[in-house]
Design goal:
By secondary structure, this protein is mostly helical. It has 2 helices and no strands.
Length: 52
C-alpha cells in the first residue's frame, strides 16, 4: 500500500472486484508458501462481511 498517494475514491465494481480477486489469489498462494490455515469457507465469510 502506498499511503503517501492514498486518496478516497467512490467504490466502483470493477476495481473492487479485481482487488478481491487479487486478495483471494494471495491467500491461496500463502497456503502453499507458508502453510497458513485458510479455506474457501474462510473466503466466503470474508465476502459476506465485506458486503455488509
Amino acid at each position: 500500500m502506498d499511503f503517501d498517494r492514498a486518496k478516497m475514491l467512490k467504490p466502483k465494481h470493477a476495481w473492487k472486484s479485481s482487488n478481491l480477486k487479487r486478495l483471494k489469489r494471495s491467500f491461496e498462494k500463502e497456503v502453499t508458501r507458508h502453510g497458513i490455515k485458510w479455506t474457501h469457507n474462510d473466503w466466503n465469510y470474508l465476502i459476506e462481511g465485506y458486503s455488509q
